[in-house]
Design goal:
- The complex is a heterodimer of chains A (301) and B (971).
- In chain A, 31% of the residues lie in helices and 22% in strands.
- Chain A has 301 residues and is of the alpha+beta class.
- The chains are: A alpha+beta (301), B alpha+beta (971).
- At the A-B interface, helix 3, helix 4 and helix 11 of A face strand 4 and helix 23 of B.
Amino acid sequence: MKSVQRYANPSSLQEALAARKADPGASYLAGGTCLLAGDGRDRPESVIDVGRSLPREILREGSLLSIGAGATFQELAESRELPPCVTDAALSMVNRNTRNRATLGGNLGADKSCSSLIPILIALEAEVEAASPSASPANPPGLERFGLEAWLRSRAEAPDIWRAADLVVRVLVPLVEGRRAAYRRWNRVACDLSVLGVAASYRIEDGGVSGLRLALGGQGPKPRRFPALEALFEGVALPSREVIEEAVSPLLRPIDDLRASAAFKRLRGAQLVADALLSASAQYGASALSGASDHRGERIW
Amino acid sequence: MVTTFKLNGKTVAWELDPGLSLRDALRAKGVISVRNGCDGEGSCGLCAVLLDGRSVNSCQLLAVQAAGRDVRTVESLSKGRELGIVQRALVDAACVQCGYCTPAVALAIEELLRRDKNPSREAIADALSSTMCRCTGYEQFFDAVRIASKRLADPSYAEPAGPEFRPDLRHIGKDRDKVDAARLALGERAFVEDRVDADACHLKMLHSPHAHAWIKAIDASAAEAMPGVVAVLTHLNCPDQVYTTAGQGFPEPSPYDQRMFSKKVRHVGDRVAAVLAETPAEAQAALEAIVVEYETLKPVLSIAEAKAPGAPIVHSGAVSYVVGGPPEGTSVEGDGRDDPVVYQFPLHSDPHRNLAASAADGIGDIEAGFADADLVIERKYKGNRVQCTPMEPHVVYARIDSGRLVLRASTQVPWHVRRIVARAIGIPENKVRVIKERVGGGFGAKQDIVVEDVAGYLAWKTGRPVFFRYDREKEFIASRTRHVMEIEVKLGAKRDGRLTAIQMRLDADTGPYGQHCLTVPMNAISKSLPLLLCDNVRFEVKSYYTNLSPAGAYQGYGAPKGSFALQTCLAELAAELGIEQLEMIERNRVRSGTRIEILRSLGEGRAGTAVTLGECGLGDMLARGKAAFAWDLAKEQAPSHAVSASPKASEIPYAQGDWKIGRGAVIIQQGSGLPGLDAANAELRLLADGTLLMLSGGADLGTGLDTVTAKAAAEILGLDMEDVEVVSGDTDVTPFDKGAYASSGTYFSGNAAVRAAEDLRDKVLAAAAAVLGEDAGRLKIAHRGRVVGERGEVSLARLAHMSIQGEGHHELVGFGNFKTEHAAFPYGAHFVQAAVNERTGEVRLSKYYAYQDCGTPINPALAVGQIYGGVMKAVGHSLYEEMIYDETGRCVNPRFLDYKIPSILEVPEDFRVELMPVADEVGPFGGKSVSEIALNGAAPAISIAIHDAVGAWVREWPFTPERVLRAMGKL
């Protein structure tokens, strides 16, 4: 079993990137709830602790929400700036000790199918601002922006090449007039990973769904968008729950595993799609961004 | 690298390996209150520390990450040995059972109260979401937080006393601190792992990757030559002896079918070799250097496969009997290769057909009973394999001291450990001393000798101290589990609901070895059938060997599965007959004064006798439950509280209409020890200052048994609790006790303490009579520590002092022995209201009331805590827990990430335990057993509630959403 041999604790982003440049095999260490989980698992030989290097503020910048990658799940949950669909997703990591350590950036970096944040951030068209150690004098921190899903996909498919810009510094979520969004998940007990997760976002235009984005976790090796599902409802008025479920179910291709059978995941996944679509509608209504309260009395986005 | 940080307010600078976790660094530096229950997975929370004020798992932090930070452990909450407010509240709320999780719980509450002075139930659950506890059932944590919160505002706040019993007694029936609670809340050294010397060697076990295979060749020579390696043990050099690991009374009703190491492996996780080395890393490296060649065999992976003609044979060695002989037609001749199987007496077995044991009996004429019925139904129920999951895994520390083997053990059965280890090693019992340390949860798994034999042998052989601790995965695959049982119930009844015939046919999967192979399945019968009155009853029990994980004892000992099958079937019959389910119970249940004929055939291996029941509290308990659940009114339709059990309101499905409400209720029973089979002893010494030393053989597993024995002494000798100290479960120091199993702690060990105290009292009175010149019969013990006569008085201290001086005759020591032929049954009634989502199959418990007749509750709040804990374990088994195997026989979820035990967020919203005392004539102060019975109600009550809600019977536990939907025909 391999254990950590070298530990760097840079105090700024520049230092972190320099440390990585000097030690290209090193792994960035954020909350450690994934990288350091499991006594019996191999650990990276060299880690760069980014706890002091990354921003953790959650700010509104014009039509963008900027979330520091160092923000913990607990900080996301407590934020007054974030829409309920994001705090819901953060709170679905129910284990408080883990919420106190796990970070946004670490969660994106791990890119697990059971991530609760990735589906909702994909659905909200989030972008990541990632830093590359190959900074140039013109672009000192080497910051580049990518669509979250494209960034995840490229990293998963070509990890070696993509290592260049794999330190997420901030996540930027566009604030879109009239957008509705929701996250729903299925778990076996409260303190469980999200075995199945669904995030939806869309606007209503001329009575029909517009700009629908559906991202699902637990229906494949990674949490990703399902364009075939989006196509079912784009441009049409949302049908009833039963009709949504019936249409979605055949398009899901989950696998049997110890957490549930494929048949159950297909059924439950379709239900979650229906729930996310319909509850998004119920949650935000037409007055999104107007500052009015939603039905749960929470401040809305 | 040198890391400087603040630890509990003091700056420390530690030289640290960068790979070391903060948990391991703290433990290595002696901060042992930081525990480990999930090997860094982050599920259990027992390693929690406050990092800059926030509760985090120290297993997932590198110690070097603490640089410049503020780290606090439970030691920061107290002043010296004086409990802090949160710790005191945990003791007051009876939250400290085994104590293994207590430091983590205390820290979580500390953090909570710093940010929220008056937290809601939801906020408390959120704060404790990270901490797993198997003993308490979490409910009393809510009380502890409330008490701590009030004391923070007003340090003089005193919590009003809870329900009290036996007004004629000073301590019995009143809440007193559990005697070990304070030191456990402080995080002091208490467990086996806290006793390990710096020079200890580390034992690591090589476990089989195959479910069924011969070891054709094993080469340990490379491993033996590796640095730090002290010894390697395999089937080639271990003692040639078979034994049972079941810690039962001798002669055991379990076959001797296990060698320390065998040339045949019988389950994934079976022992292949052990390495003893100076460091864990060296032991691990050596394990990996052992070369094993296997000849794999087809495994037996279910009961159906075990009994199929031509099935692979799990045990093919010679079969012999110490007393009696084999059943006719069974094969006893070995294959010349496998280990022998030795039965102490016949168990109707046929190992060469994978039948480890069987039994069949009954009363009346079953066929006539069915013929007489207006309706006969037959149903099959299945309970899957669950693991006991004590938060402290199996652990032992063995060392040689003065030529003897000293085992510091986490065990329920110190004397059985001594006997079995002595036999396994081949040394006399007087060469072995077993010291039971605080046990971080036993629940039955620690009734077996799982680690002590091999650790003891290696210490004995090498002379080196041996530390051996399972990790969580080993605890799942190589410890003990609850038997899989498939139970066919056939019931016949008249139209009015009266039963005319009951037949139960039970097949059990005992796994690769036969520990508890007959007694656990038999208990499924013997703790369920006697609840119902019927003239014609038949049962058959068969226990099969398979190549799945070893089964054994688990709290309830078979009874939860028997109860599930019989009580659910009774409700199914009621539904078919159109009779309300509680009415069906009412028409058939035992009641005060009824004669229980079925006990003639349930004699625990001896001839049984029918018993006329004395007082039985079932009627009152059912009446209370019916009132509390407004049973006679139509059930409420989806009240909002029924669905808010979700951790966050945001997870409530928007369509409340999918949630259907159902109710279920069952009656349950257990025993109180094994009458006629077991015995307990205690010794009580009066010391020269008038204090008492209780030497109890009993094994307190966190259950509060030491508090029971202390109370007996204080009550009878007129002293206070602080005047009594208890030493227990040390085979050198305390007298024999059968151990803590079969619900015998309070009844047997408690009664032994009562008798020791009475014996001491009589001796004290005789000594005082001589001093006072009065007849002993006229003297009375008076509070606190005085003997009062008509003419004068004398203190216990003076009498004790005199007794050990030249003027005395002998030291004042009382001795107590307890054995009985009397069977004391605790009874209970469990009522549940569940919300079942007919669309998703999810089940949530909105209301769970457990009524229990445990006789006189010796310490009510602790008794209640035991019941909460028992219920929550059973809720876990009923709804979430299941060991899952792949097609090769490998358990695929041996970790808390995927074996889901309930957290505080699964606790029913309205969760209540009520004690209904019905004094037992033999029990200590009228007490009966408490905790095991509490496991028997959840599965049938929830299953009945699910049917009530959505009209489907789920006959296999756990009732996962998937199984509920399948039962409803929706999947």
